[in-house]
Write a structure and sequence with these properties.
Blueprint: E1 4-9, E2 12-16, H1 24-45, H2 47-72, H3 80-84, H4 90-122, E3 127-129, E4 135-142, E5 145-151, E6 182-186, E7 202-204, H5 213-223, E8 229-231, E9 237-239, E10 251-255, H6 259-270, E11 274-277, E12 279-281, E13 285-287, E14 291-293, H7 312-324, E15 328-331, E16 348-352, E17 356-360, E18 387-392, E19 425-428, E20 432-435, E21 443-446, H8 449-470, H9 479-488, H10 510-522, E22 529-535, E23 540-546, E24 552-557, E25 582-587, E26 593-594, E27 597-598, H11 608-611, E28 616-617, E29 625-630, E30 636-644, E31 652-660, E32 676-679, E33 682-688, E34 694-700, E35 709-710, E36 715-716, E37 721-727, E38 736-742
Parallel strand pairs: 6-10, 6-11, 7-10, 11-15, 14-16, 15-18, 18-19
Antiparallel strand pairs: 1-2, 3-4, 4-5, 5-12, 8-9, 13-14, 16-17, 20-21, 22-31, 23-30, 24-29, 24-31, 25-26, 25-30, 27-28, 32-33, 33-37, 34-35, 34-36, 34-38
Amino acid sequence: PELEVVEIAPGIFVFDDTAIPDTPEQAEARKRRQEADALAKAIAANPLLAEAERTARQAAQEAVWKANKEKVAPWLVKPLASYTGEPPGREATEAHTRSRLLDLAAQFNAEYQATLETAAKTGTPAELIFPNGERAVLSSFVEGQPLWNMSDSLTQAVSIATAAVWPGGGAGFSLTGTNTPIGLWEAGGIPRLTHQEFQGRVSVGDGTTNQESHATAVASVLNAAGLYTIIYPVGVTNPQAAKGMSYAAPVVSNNSSNDVSEMASQVATNNPRISNHSYSARCGWQWLGAWVWFGDTNVSQTVDWKFGAYTTEAYSIDTNAYAARMYLPVWTPGNSGGEGPPVQPTNHYVFVPPNNFIPVSGVTRSIDGDAGVYDSLHPQGCAKNVLTVGNVSNLVAGYTGPASVRIGPYSPFGPTDDGRLKPDIVAPGTDIIMAGNASDIDFVVGSGTSFAAPAISGSINLLNQLRNTLHPNARPWLASTMKALVIQTADEAGDHPGPDYRFGWGLMNTRRAAELVRNNATNGWKSFLKEIFLPNGGSIEIPVPFAAGQTGRFTIVWTDPAGLPQTNAVIDSPATRLVNDVDMQVIAPSGTTNFPYVLNPDLTNQSALARAAAATTGDDSRNNVEQVVVTNTVTGTYLVRITHKGTLAGGGQWITWTMSGGHAQAKPPLVLSQPSVTASNKLAFSWPSVVGQLYQVQYLNNLEGASWTNWDDVICAISTNTAVEVDMDGPDGRRFYRVVEVE
């Protein structure tokens, strides 16, 4: 039938289609409309029905929101401030850190003043000078017995490939340490500031005026200019033999009295990223013109309880490092590996409080260390967050294999009393030519961990200079990153592959570390070195492509919260000092799981055979360093998974991850997904991400003439896709969001 035109108002006409039969679809739609109209009238007339309808609609809407959130849940992360409780923003976070460090400086200073008050009351001297000229500085008291800090000496650049990164060194870096300061603390005093090797680059940070030979020698390993040609051994000419690792770097020197307080205040005000400490609490036997035994005879007549102990000194150092996060102390572990009189019994002295060294005869005491010289570390070297350095002989021809690395005289071995791996790394500290204190052109030869440590400190300082050159606007490295670089790129040492309690992770290789830093910057940015925040309850996943037949090496390091210190004089306290137990596994394309190295500390039997055994693999719940090595890889993608046990103190844990052997990955395009509503005033969106990259979410309420505002704190990506949930708080419920990379 034809349509009829009907005038429904003057000049307004409509087509009347009532005469046209509905199709089945139209009929069904008309029926639904009629039912909906009827229901709406019924609901309007009945409040109970209206409430039920609203409830049903709300439940349906919430179900949709829940489904939307579940879709993004695997990638959902929060801003860092939400986990840590720190204020958002880089400047605010750094100000918070400075404030915390200054508080610690005041706290540690008060503790040191209390130590001095105790010394004054008991008549204990604050400093001792022995007949051979060596000095001991009072550190603290444990059960009435004083702990004395003393220098760790026994009376470099080619060996650890640092010369390769100097100008003309062949590696293409030209690093000198310029404008990259190093902190220096010494037990005996400060260096001879006028020595011509320093060229005015050594200053004093704490007002100390006493110049001392050990400090001069250590400082020269850090930054001597290498001006003079030296003949040593007799008849051998060594051009620039006394050249420091960071030979153009400024060094700020301090006395070790009140060291942890000064470390906190100087990091807060001057921002040094690394410091050297070639001293430690005196343990066991020491030759000081006569044999002296520093053990506590109230605890044991034969064994000094301080070996391997996590004392309040170690605790305080870890507290500083955890608060600073971007500051790495490098420490010596003493020179007590097998030290003691060659014939016993022998006449010797023992300290008896308050201030007497009394002569003793006819008494036999143990040579320092357990069987095989294990467990001979001094307390500060047992701190978790320092880089502890052992001593090896000079490698005149450079590294030629594990057998070319030979342990130096009396270099101490681990484990710590709770079974952790120390030392972390080794460097040459034997027969080192250094600036002397007798005149401005004096030189001396010395040995000990005292001179191995500054070789490491000065070399890491060059890596900091490289970082500043490659990324001048980036945040400074985490301390764990400096430590991870050294461990990841070390040359193998010892009888077996992997770590051991004598050489730690091996011999530092500065050139290889610098190459990793450069490769990371130019070949994929963050493909080989990442700083990642692991949130409490979260996990990190990093896919890494490999070709067939490669060796993959993966290392994680984290600056752990300080553990509970040992405050009583107990021999071999096994209490675990690790706080945040982070774990790494590497899963092969086949599904096989590769675990990190573990060593057997044999805390019960203390067997030299067990402690010298090759590292195996498994779960590590002792150390804040883990390394996985995968040999003979297959073609495919390996998945690195980082998790944690228990609850992470501090709301989460910053870790450093580094890798070698795999391929760099291209950065994905930063494209946001379609947002979806996840709550009445929330929406979520995601983007492809680089693990370890910091991202900032920003918003606008009006596109006309406004600048972008940061939404909360930065986001740290922990997987290759990242999602956030944001507010819909703009005017009229409208807001514009974007995501940008940070540093």
